[in-house]
Amino acid sequence: MSSLLVTFKLDQLGEPREYSPPADRVIEGDIICRNWDVDSAKDGKVRAGVFESTPGTNRSIKGETWEFCLILSGVAEITEDGHPPVTYKAGDCFIMKPGYTGMWRTLETVRKVWVMA
């Protein structure tokens, strides 16, 4: 029987899926994103992994997605539409709820653990 305990082995993530945000959402910079899917459950409706982004600014639109984030390294400034910017760095956690829209500005390459539902 396989284990029901999943460990994030941050030094053994393997090859990431590399991509850039959609061009119509990029505001500044030549952003490169890397994503490592670690696990999923409930028919893929709950997913978890590690994400990394190089510096730049882009529009962030959550749609119907709920996302928990734990910043592992780097610095990002996130500005929800109609609200002041909030700066996050290593050790900080936050949740972006369904319907969230705003700006994600990566000041120093950011790596985060994420859980989406």
Features:
single chain, Jelly Rolls, 0% helix, globular
Question: Summarize this, please?
Answer:
By secondary structure, the chain is mostly beta strands. Helices cover 0% and strands 57% of the residues.
The helix/strand class is: mainly beta
Termini, distance in Å?
26 Å
Question: What would the average pLDDT be, to the nearest integer?
Answer: 96
Tell me the total number of β-strands. 9
What's the architecture of one domain in CATH terms?
A: Sandwich
Instruction: Classify the helix fraction into a percent range.
Output: under 10%
Radius of gyration: 14 Å
Low-confidence stretches: none
Q: H/E series, N to C?
A: EEEEEEEEE
Question: How large is the share of residues in beta strands?
Answer: over 45%
Give the class-level CATH name of one domain. Mainly Beta
Number of helices: 0
Shape: globular
